[in-house]
Amino acid sequence: MTPIAIKVACSNCNLRELCMPLGLNQEELDRIDGLVAVRRKIPRGATLFRNGETFTALYAIRTGFFKTSITTEDGRDQVTGFQMAGEIIGLDGIVNDQHTCDAVALEDAEVCEMPFERIEELSREVNALQRHVHKIMSREIVREHGVMLLLGSMRAEERLAAFLLNLVQRLHARGFSPLELVLRMTREEIGSYLGLKLETVSRTFSKFAEDGMVEVKQRHIRILDTEALKRIVNLQPCL
Question: Is the pLDDT of residue 4 over 50?
Fold first, then answer.
């Protein structure tokens, strides 16, 4: 987890369109390039930040996959989200200047660390960056509303179908297949996130496979019938 003091040029990054504003002129691009203080490698199983730690920066995930989680009063680990390359992590710390969850790498990962003081400073000068930060925060609010809907009104089949559709949609935006994916999280972690028992998650995957909607080979998932999964969700918004 030692920071790597390497200059990272956002303007040349292949994930730029996913985590940085579009339509910037060269001067604005040069200034935003200076946002990234360091690039950090986070080994699988290591923590990027912990609940209660002082909030100092946002992190753009360059490679890898993370989960965020909180510890419940009875000591259980409750997964609150999964984040992938091209997404921003650490927004939870903005409100009270300290993180409210743990962020753990589900595979070897690399993040670009962006000091929040510098983001605020540049946002006042580059309007496109300010709008982009607001857009990211708004997206997080919408996602949380989606999770509330998911946990409050959906059956197990609807929850898992919505989860899979959302995951392949996000991966497809990054150039991956819209029909195949490798789950970086365990079924137990999926269950924690969806409010389902491990047995229910496994049983629902098996039912989807039996019904010809997906093909399951351990963590490798192939979507065979996207429309059938969408019908299960019944047009409710995906998380």
Answer: no
Sign of CA dihedral 2, 5, 6, 11: positive
Burial class (CB in 10 A: 0-12, 13-18, 19+), 61: buried
Cβ(13)–Cβ(86) under 8 Å? Answer: no
3-class DSSP assignment, residue 37:
coil
Instruction: Name the token pair of 24.
Output: 């910037």
pLDDT average, residue stretch 129-147: 75
The whole-angstrom separation of Cα 156 and Cα 154 is 7
Chain mean pLDDT for the chain: 85
- Reading the block at residue 107, the tokens are 């595979």
Residue 152 vs residues 73, 145, 159, 192, 193: alpha-carbon distances, Å: 21, 10, 10, 14, 13
pLDDT, residue 175, reads 84
CA distance 68 to 120: 24
Summarised one tens digit per residue, pLDDT across range 76-129 is 889 999 999 988 899 999 889 999 999 999 999 999 898 999 888 888 877 777
Mean pLDDT of 1-15: 54
Phi-psi region of 52 (alpha: psi -120 to 50; beta: other; left: phi over 0): left
Token pair of 104 as six digits: 């753990």
Closest CA to 29 of 167, 121, 129: 129
Q: Which two tokens stand for residue 184?
A: 């970086």
